[in-house]
Amino acid sequence: MPGLASDPGDSLVPFLPDVRDPVVYPVRHGVNPPIFRVYVSWTRGNFLQVACLRPPAAEPAGGEEDGVSDEEIGGKVVEVKLGAGDEEISEAQRRRIAYGSVPAFALLQSRKNSLAAMSRMSASSIRTEWWEHVLEYSRHISDLLGNPMLPSSTVIEDPKMIMQPHEEPTTLKAAWQLMEIFYVDKLSSTWLPERLVDWLADYDSLLTETTIHSKVEGLQKRLSSLKVVVEDDPEYWEGMSGALAAGWLDAVVKLLRLHGSYQLEQLGSRETENGLVEAVAVLVSTMPRMRPHLPAGRLGQCYKTKPDFIKAWEKWRLHISRLDSSTFWVQCSHHQTREGLRNLLQIMLGNISNLRAATCHWMELFISHFLYIRPLTMGLDEFHSLAQKCMQLKSSSSSNGLMGLFIGILGENPEVVLAECSKTLGPWMVAHAMELLTVDNGHADILLHEERYSLGDISIEELHRLVYAQVLSSHPLTWQIAPTYLASCPKQGLGLLEILLYKQPVQHYQMILKNLEICRLYELENISSSIMKIAGTYHWKHGRKGSGVYWLQQARDEVRLNKIAQQLFECIGKSISDDSFKQWEGLIELLGSQVGTAGGLEFLHKYRDFKRSLQQVQDGSPVDAARQTMESLMQLMKNSSTPQRFWLPLLHDSVKLLNWKAQPLLTVSETNLLLNKLQELSMVKLHPDFCESNLPPQALSSVRLALATNLGRAVLEEC
Amino acid sequence: MSAHQTSTMEKEVATLEKGALCCSWNYCGQRLAVGFVDGSVSIHDNLDSASSCSSKWKAHASSINNIVWLPPEFGDAIACISADGSMSLWEEVEDDTQPLKWKMCKLFESSNVTVLDLQFGVYSTSLKMVVAYSDGHVKVYELLDPLELNKWQLQAEFQNVIDSVLRFGKPSCAKASIAWNPRRGESQQSSFVLGFNSDLPQFNSSKIWEFEEDHQRWLPVAELALPGDKGDRVHAVAWAPNIGRPYEVIAVATCKGIAIWHVGLNPESDGRLSTEKVALLSGHDGEVWQLEWDVSGLTLASTGADGMVRLWQSNVNGVWHEEAALECNGMQQ
């Protein structure tokens, strides 16, 4: 049963019956049913990991009965990639596009911000400047999506090479070009129909399976393999009429020149026929075009202004009509040639039934209208109604995402354009094409920039950038560019960036540095401190104490550093021998190098000296060692970096020396200082934050007694 | 208009041993902890490349029903809930004296009640753990030393009912679901949502509990159920990440379907948070097992007894719908 969104009754959102059924995808996990439990987790970006578990049946009594290997596994975990998009573009190519589009996108955003800041400039000049920026952006992205065709002059002309080979066109580039033509490229708006003719020449093969392109391509293969009399071959005439209808004049002229009447030995007998072929070729190659220029190798005569063009077009059509009604046709004995050439003339005269027969897809018929019927068509509504008409005439044409996009553009329907971009071309296209859509379209601008409560107070533009950034963050190679897009999201971008940063693994030093750099760039102090804490704890717990302390210091994590200091103090207390001290020495060095407020542990050095001489005393060394120990003790107690919580353990260690039999080791003033410290400690003990050390309960009183005794003896001594 | 274009491509990342009962991913999705019917736990590493089982040990005498990872600031550590009602905390440690291993830090034994669910929340620097028990009680513990996972202090204990003065009978709870407010930050109050699957209706409905600093107590600030639905048994709850919305989004699955709730950020004059049920999504035939929001809080994934993973999204008009479904029940190889 498909899931339905249903109305909760009192909700404000009405139930919409047009919500489409979800697409169901089988997960190929390789675990035989039944499935006992399914667990999911969004791991990176929009990757979903799915764990499918088998029922944990009790161990069979006999042990291995059927021994089916499948029974040995408890389940599988698969990673499912959502929104894989069309397979037209490889992963590596997709990444190349993702990386390549970042600078253009970032530049455009920064230009947008600086233009927004320049309120003093007049609105129209800002608009013009902005439009120029978007055009530059569009051209950059367009280049990125595929290289332009190689100019034909670089290869030696092969008369049988009707179409120049060039890079396989992609739907992505075709869609981008369409949007550029209609939304951005104002300079060519006066010759929009001709721009579409050029577009079709590049992308005709993407429309459907059988196109004029595929026919001409088929014809080219036949020509190179067969030694036939071309004019007897119906496909020759069919391919030529298609090429003419689509406006590929150079291909038509090349094909005409392959006509048998050009053969030297036939010229004499087929003079009139050859004259007719050549006359058509001349007419084709001199077709007036309403455009400023033509790329090298393309045929036709360009006219920049409308009156000039109309004059030339009418004259050209007159020539065609004259040829059509001339008496030479009677003298042309070759039936196919006669019919084929006259069909070409009818196409050029804009005879709709000939055009319809010559084209395969409605888009081709649509384009042929601009060439031969209505070369001056202007305005999207005219385009739209013409497209509707062509679709009716060619109702068998299949529809695809590209055509949906085209109709959306003609229908001035940005919702449809976006939906088609999203459905057919994926999140990259939507995130980047948004700039084209809004450049000069108030309606789209409002639609895409309006903040919507149902989206959490963000605009559709921001939503799609968030979605694209999430896709980028799915792969470790593209995750680094996600912040650029998130930074352009005014409301929720940094929120998402924080979560993405928090979820990055911390095992590798270089990766941590990169992530911290991102934090610094976008002023995310909280998250950078979290990352350093996670790294610090990870290394500390995994035996890399130095790295652990380093990161915790970077995070200024006093709580954890103080706990570590406590642990170290206890360790040194237990291990006085030099060998075991060495393992801590580096760490203490590290802790001491950046004293600050957090975990300055330089006193641990003195504590080491103190412990060492104490050991010597216990080993039975002379009075000098005892004196030296007490000196260390005094230094430690006077030093402000010795944390208070270590005072009592230090004094407790020294009780034996305070009770030194031979003579008191401390002077009166020294003893008083220690007594004061002890008094301070007793006060602190009453404080609720006091942290009890691991000393015996009578430690304080035994220290006090020893100090008092020492004081008495010192007084006597100093008398 | 959908946010995700949905077509799929899958890649196997781990094979689980026989007897696997539950599993849980760590914060970055690279490690997987698996609980087994014999009480052992295994850890799979490097899920993004060549996955391998790095360690396996016996954690409890009875089967492991649930595993929860601690937040990464507290190390690589997990909590295991055993079928016998006890729970234990384990962390991965290594030092000069011992090689890398998983060490038990703390065992919470139980006498007559069992632990049903637990979740961890980080607020400023402290780690809190909410534990829900089979008798309808909730305990909140706080970690005293961020580097030692064995020192916990019981901060509060209460029942999942709105009116704490009324006396209720003793419920028998089969399942509990807890979700912390995922928002991090100093100023944020601690809060979590909790629902039960029990035989006493008052305990079932999902309630949002918030810690009141002034009186150092936990208060119910919202109830996520319409008047007629309050006794519905709750199967799962999930609190969506909030990257900047002016309201929170929480998903609650009951026998009636998955409800999507909008919850106000700030309390109203009576101290309660405003709530609005914006959708009820049905699709799973039978019980919902798990709800999981993606990082942006735009897509909700649910799993259920029908063996499907369903992905739910809202369109630009705020209408929730099922965007796609992944069929896991199929017989394929």
UniProtKB/TrEMBL annotation, chain A:
Organism superkingdom: Eukaryota
Single annotated GO MF: structural constituent of nuclear pore
Main location: nucleus
Recorded GO CC terms: nuclear membrane; nuclear pore outer ring
Physiological role: Functions as a component of the nuclear pore complex (NPC).
Family: Belongs to the nucleoporin Nup85 family.
Protein name stated in the entry: Nuclear pore complex protein Nup85
Gene field: LOC105047434
UniProtKB/TrEMBL annotation, chain B:
GO molecular function: structural molecule activity
Pfam families in the cross-refs: WD40
Keyword annotations from UniProtKB, A to Z: Nucleus, Protein transport, Repeat, Transport, WD repeat
Signal peptide from the UniProt entry: none
GO biological process, alphabetically ordered: cellular response to amino acid starvation; positive regulation of TORC1 signaling; protein transport
SMART domains cross-referenced by the UniProt entry: WD40
Residue windows of the WD repeats: 281-313
Subcellular location field: Nucleus envelope
GO CC terms: nuclear pore outer ring; Seh1-associated complex
Family: Belongs to the WD repeat SEC13 family.
PANTHER family: NUCLEAR PORE COMPLEX PROTEIN SEC13 / SEH1 FAMILY MEMBER, NUCLEOPORIN SEH1
Annotated protein name in UniProt: Protein SEH1
Source organism of the structure: Elaeis guineensis var. tenera (Oil palm)
Gene that encodes it: LOC105039494
